[in-house]
Design brief:
Mean pLDDT: 96
CATH topology: Rossmann fold
Oligomer: single chain
Helix content: 40-55%
Structural class: alpha/beta
Largest sheet: 5 strands, parallel
Distance between the termini: 12 Å
CATH class: Alpha Beta
Number of strands: 5
Radius of gyration: 13 Å
Strand order of the largest sheet: 2-1-3-4-5
CATH architecture: 3-Layer(aba) Sandwich
Length: about 120
């Protein structure tokens, strides 16, 4: 079963994305901040990471860089799901190691399509 780590500081966003993914047969692990997500990434080696950008302490861009710098985790695909919707944000996200960048508000189809595209 494909395991996906969902990282967002908003409990409602985590719940929504988790529901979309579990309904489609994915196993979901969650983290409410990037530091916890880094730890869970190392412990669980998820198949895909879906992360927000705007979070306290460490943002999603920094999280992407940390995952991609580590030889143990660098091959894990990352989907950024953010309210930051400017072209510059998208370009920066891809430069930090994201494989797909989708913006909020999103649909169930957006999330599933993004995840499927990186598996």
């Amino acid at each position: 079963m494909t395991t996906i780590l969902v990282v967002d500081d908003s409990p409602s966003e985590v719940q929504l994305i988790s529901n979309f993914l579990t309904e489609n047969g994915y196993k979901v692990i969650t983290a409410d901040n990037a530091k916890t997500a880094l730890q869970k990434t190392l412990e669980n080696k998820p198949d895909v990471i879906v992360t927000d950008v705007v979070m306290p302490d460490m943002n999603g861009f920094e999280f992407c860089r940390s995952v991609k710098k580590n030889p143990e985790t660098q091959k894990i695909p990352i989907v950024i799901c953010s309210s930051k919707n400017q072209e510059l944000d998208k370009l920066w996200g891809m430069k930090q190691g994201a494989d797909v960048y989708i913006t909020k508000p999103f649909t169930k189809e957006d999330i599933i399509k993004a995840v499927k595209s990186v598996i």
